[in-house]
Design a protein that fits this description.
GO molecular function: double-stranded DNA binding
InterPro entries: SASP_alpha/beta-type, SASP_DNA-binding, SASP_sf_alpha/beta
Radius of gyration: 14 Å
Protein name: Small, acid-soluble spore protein, alpha/beta type
Shape: globular
Strand content: under 5%
Distance between the termini: 34 Å
Pfam family, one: SASP
Number of helices: 2
Largest sheet: none
Organism: Paenibacillus phyllosphaerae
Length: 74
Amino acid sequence: MAGQSRSSNTLVVPQASAALEQLKYEAAQELGIQIPADGYYGNFATRDAGSLGGYITRKLVQIAEQQLSGSQFR
């Protein structure tokens, strides 16, 4: 099951999958959270998952705001 998503959400731009995966790992590193190497999130703490999801959402909103304002990202 490693590397497969059970989510029913579909990406509007399928090529964005790799960028979102990279963002997940960068966010986890910044927060000091270990992503399970085997892809099994059953033992992943709910608190860590919530922190990671919230951080990713904030980053995506920040990126969108910067793009809408016309400024460059990073």
